[in-house]
Write a structure and sequence with these properties.
The chain has about 210 residues and is an alpha+beta fold. It has helices at about 15-20, 25-30, 75-80, 120-125, 140-145, 205-210; strands spanning about 35-40, 45-55, 85-90, 95-100, 105-120, 165, 180, 200. A hairpin with a 7-residue loop joins strand 4 and strand 5. The longest helix is centred in the N-terminal third of the chain and has 8 residues, at about 25-30. The protein binds a DNA duplex (13 and 13 nucleotides) through strand 3, strand 4 and helix 5.
Length: about 210
DNA sequence: AGCACGATTAACT
DNA sequence: GTTAATCGTGCTC
């Protein structure tokens, strides 16, 4: 008997659209610990545990792109929950958001950091050989590591056939979730600038979770 | 048609 | 702590 090839790691099905059709802050908190998974052409996957997110909530949120009304750029935010809103900024960076709440309610959660879990060699190649710890610790960096660009805008994160999905990951102790003001809203007026809508698990939180400590 | 700025990052002092 | 890189977007003229 020749040794069998290692069995693929079994994956839970993607999180359902109903998960995203809830208040954006609830979705943001629930996304922490989930798995971001990108299927690759060679049948492997690039994956990481969502560690840091930000909520952007409706046209009234002056830190949210939706403040400008519905445009070609932010159109995805008005669409059905559970899809990707991917946009380009600073002349060089892509950002990945998950659309939340009911259709016609423009809101989304920005994925700001994930803990690399699988496909790390590929991430290194895509990220010019940064130290592993710095591969996915920023919203633009994780898009580079996962090769996410405009082609993913409007794509479903719930369809098992999608190249990019979000699936159940590790359970998170909600008391470990930290909240601060969102990053990079320097010119946004109060109170939106200071709304504590950035949520994250401290650097050691996920490790503690994984070791059961 | 032109322009100021951006949900950032890396590389500086 | 500061700043350049770099260009799509939305706003003004």
């Amino acid at each position: 008997m020749s040794p069998a090839a290692p069995a693929p790691i079994p994956l839970f099905p993607p999180v359902e659209p109903a998960f995203y059709n809830r208040p954006t802050l609830d979705v943001a908190a629930s996304l922490l610990g989930k798995l971001l998974i990108r299927a690759e052409p060679d049948d492997t996957c690039t994956a990481g545990i969502i560690q840091e997110v930000e909520a952007y909530i409706g046209q009234g949120d002056l830190g949210c792109h939706a403040r400008a009304g519905r445009t070609a750029r932010n159109d995805a935010m008005w669409g059905p929950p559970g899809r990707a809103y991917v946009y380009f900024t600073y002349g060089m960076h892509w950002m990945l958001n998950v659309v939340t709440e009911a259709e016609e309610m423009p809101a989304a959660v920005l994925l700001r950091a994930v803990l690399p879990l699988s496909g790390i060699e590929r991430m290194r190649a895509r990220c010019k050989h940064k130290p592993d710890r710095l591969l996915c610790d920023g919203p633009a960096k994780l898009c580079q590591a996962f090769a996410i660009d405009r082609s993913f805008n409007h794509s479903s994160l719930c369809d098992p056939a999608s190249l990019l999905t979000i699936r159940p990951g590790c359970s998170i102790d909600r008391t470990r979730i930290q909240r601060t003001a969102r990053i990079g809203l320097e010119n946004v007026p109060e109170p939106w600038k200071s709304m504590p809508w950035r949520l994250y698990i401290p650097a050691d939180g996920l490790l503690l979770e994984k070791t059961g400590k």
